[in-house]
Amino acid sequence: MTESAAEVLIEVRDVGKVFANGVVGLKQVSMTVRRGEVVCIIGPSGSGKSTLLRTLNALETITSGEIQVLGQSVHGGKANLNRLRTHVGMVFQSFNLFPHKTALENLMLAPRVVGKVATSELRERCQALLAKVGLADKADAHPAQLSGGQQQRVAIARALAMQPDIMLFDEPTSALDPEKVNEVLDVMKVLAREGMTMCVVTHEMGFARAVADRVVFMEAGEIVYEDRPEPFFEAPRSERLKAFLGQVLK
Amino acid sequence: MWYGVYVLVLVVFGIAVHAASDRVAYTWRWDRIPQYIVNNDGTEMRAPYDGFVAVAPDKKSLTLKELRGSRHDTITGFDVLLVGDGDLVFQNDALARKSGLVAGPLTLGLWMTLKLSAVALVFSMLLGLVAGLGRIARNPAVYGLATTYVELIRGTPLLVQIFIFYFFVGTVLKLSAFTAGAAALAVFTGAYVAEIIRAGIESIPRGQMEAARSLGMSVPQAMRHVVLPQAFKKTLPPLAGQFINLIKDSSLVSVMALTDLTKAGREVVASTFSPFEVWFTVALMYLVLTGTLSLFVRRLEKRLAHD
């Protein structure tokens, strides 16, 4: 893939964020994501990875700078955020499935409510999405009856049900038992292979190395280092990244 | 074993009540009570205006001719004639009686309490939902109004509010006693419902709202489809408690010209001089109402628990 040719879907320019309590969340962050790219964001906890991800669909506000997603300024105040969010799927660390609905209803709710499609074809499409994440037989199960890995796969399918252009993953495997991690990563790998544009905040170095087009290292609210996976992991030209990798890859 | 203790304590309590009534030399006359629940008095047919009565030869119908006017009505279907041919009667005089079982004052009072509580319940739910949402709103005007409402209502006695509704609001807006009473109860209960709903909404993890918003739902859509259904399930037990309170609090409207169960009880006491029996009966009737509501809510809770 020739990266420079693809259209820019996410453009983050000099974004700063100071929380209400005075804590600095982001400092002068700039980043570009093109169509079809998979960008993994790694870094120690509290480094601003999740905050950055959540500013992309305006779940978090910014204090300075500019973010453009799909050609619209996210924080300009003029964008129709509800509309924009239908194009940007998000998967949370704690799944956040709707506990009062079955798996299938979790998928169908937003498309039905936001009114993107007719109900008859929606049901089929959502069934197909559940099958895609390997849970065709769990359509009528409530979230409480599913394991963590299964819940996260339903959550991914739920985000896909809106047919988004971009998928944001906020530490999707951090809340899972170790043996459930791979079933979720496998689904994400399939998505990446199909050409989905993805931003993934993760601690899974193996996944970042195998799937990412670029890896971004954040520390203390700043992007410290950014490169293609092989040089990023093999020969990082940053002492801070080296120290971090030394810690997590031990 | 413990079941036996339970029964034993109840029996001892019953004996104590009986002994206590003996000490004040009270004569129990339970036989006086049933007629106030349901009786065979029948219904009386009354004159709608002043006039002269003309009774048909077969005594099966009578005609009333207006004294100063041209109206006249024929009345049939009665069992006992209470007037004679050519009698002059005045408005509201009894003309005839139709026998049959009719509800006594206590039953009518129970029905009034039920109607009052049901109307107040529906409106307090709506009011509470609006005020509860207002309590979590970011808009200062909305939040301020909702908070003032809740604090004002919770900070004043219901009895005082009923007087204000009856004598002030009711007079200004020309409300009937029933409307004023139901409004006072709805406004009072609504404040408590608002706090219950607010707590219910706040007990739903923030991630639920975020997930719904990240899928493109607006705040009202997310509330309607994601947060409120979950909050409703959680608030069902405290809401049930509040509505049971509503039924009991409705007894306070008996200070207005409304014959609810409590007012009916007072009237029956005045005519029977059997306060013990009457008040025990009235208490039992309230228990039937509140017990039915509890049962219904428990059923609903069980059904919702399956999802």
TrEMBL record, chain A:
InterPro entries: AAA+_ATPase, ABC_ATPase_HisP-typ, ABC_transporter-like_ATP-bd, ABC_transporter-like_CS, MetN_ABC_transporter-like, P-loop_NTPase. It is found in: Cell inner membrane. One of its GO terms (molecular function) is ATP hydrolysis activity. The keyword Transport applies. Its main location: membrane. It holds the Pfam family ABC_tran. It is a peripheral membrane protein. This is Amino acid ABC transporter ATP-binding protein.
